[in-house]
């Protein structure tokens, strides 16, 4: 148990380092690009990105997760997955190239044709990374992945800013996407000792795809679902409106989804080894849920509170219409760890069939809400996301209770305290910022600090389990540091 906790802790540490370095740099570059580019440039890229995320899900085919989860993996298995991915990437690019004019026609944006055909090259680059990432994850080598992610963000962001400065417009975002994939692939191959050999096994493919096929279908549906909002907004509204929504979505995802993904990626290989011990698995998952909610909730709540001031300070008037979208999406972001960790549990338990069934149910409800919201504009569409997020908690939490005894009541108890504390602190921050006129930046920093103190005090008074766990872990680290001093 102790060794397992140490492995998880090290993995989470390097993934969080990767998050703060790569995502921190990514945020800075995105903010700078938003100052240089108009919302319609982001809107065009958002429309094209839907297609590439679909192809990425298709190329992976769930085989990468199948490799990580398998108790033992042979070199033949790795070679089979590699060549499968490369073959699928070739098919995908041919499909992208041929369908680009039709996609552009769907959105009524002629310039999308060439954009999609150029950006489509990223599917080859991403296909080369699937096995290398899986190999490094099985070794719990998240430090190498951190280096690759950070380097790709810094290089691609710098190139994109240079291109935007010289007036390349939307093509600067294309440069960013392609260079990021290139640098990331190069660094992963540099840090992984695995190299493909000339072999392919039908048995390996059948075994791995047997587990991954449900994840493939769920992955494709998930991408379609997540991007259905971009599809609808891009189809029925302007490129500028799409860009405003896209930026709000990107900013909200940077914190909630990326932080959760970092923890999931680090814990999944280790927790997979505990898949047959429900008691320990429940204990570990509950700890992860408590810590995640304690960290994510205040960040999302404070982001919602600071959004009007932050957008005015950083982006100027042309992006202010994005603020209410971001504030609503912060509610979705607070709940995201609950959804993601429950789905992750199903995969750890080998119930990919349930992942698919639950995913189909949730997406059906969400899409119905989306199409009902179209007459109410983009604001109504974002509100439908919030409602859908609450409704999706029902099937997500049910199966965790059934599989390992992590009941709905336990989960509500684990998430309620940090959410209450976060909402109060976020509202206080919003009120503070209504009175800061002079020295706005200084007032923003001071208000944020006070609001964070309010969150910690309320969490302490409520006895938030996530806070207790975090304090205990910090105490252990301090004792170790003092011992070696």
Protein traits:
mainly alpha; 2 domains; 485 residues; 0% strand; globular
Count of folded domains:
2
Shape: globular
Q: Report the count of strand segments.
A: 0
Helix and strand sequence: HHHHHHHHHHHHHHHHHH
Q: How would you state the average pLDDT, rounded?
A: 79
> What structural class do helix, strand and pairing data support?
mainly alpha
Largest sheet: none
Total of helices: 18
Through-space gap between termini: 27 Å
Poorly predicted residue ranges: none
The helix fraction, in percent, is over 70%
The value of Rg in angstroms is 22 Å
Which strand-content bin applies to the residues? under 5%
Would you give an account of this structure?
This protein is mainly α. The chain has two domains: 32-237, no CATH class; 274-485, no CATH class. Helices cover 86% and strands 0% of the residues. It is built from 18 helices and no strands. The protein has helices spanning 2-36, 39-60, 63-69, 75-107, 112-119, 122-127, 130-138, 142-165, 171-191, 202-236, 239-272, 278-314, 323-348, 352-373, 377-404, 408-433, 440-462, 465-483. The longest helix is centred in the middle third of the chain and has 37 residues, at 278-314. The radius of gyration is 22 Å and the shape is globular. The relative contact order is 0.11. The model has no long low-confidence stretch (mean pLDDT 79).
Could you outline the blueprint of secondary structure elements for this entry?
Elements: H1 2-36, H2 39-60, H3 63-69, H4 75-107, H5 112-119, H6 122-127, H7 130-138, H8 142-165, H9 171-191, H10 202-236, H11 239-272, H12 278-314, H13 323-348, H14 352-373, H15 377-404, H16 408-433, H17 440-462, H18 465-483
Helix pairs in contact: 1-8, 1-11, 2-4, 2-5, 2-10, 2-11, 3-7, 3-10, 4-5, 4-10, 8-9, 10-14, 11-12, 11-13, 12-13, 12-16, 12-17, 12-18, 13-15, 14-15, 16-17
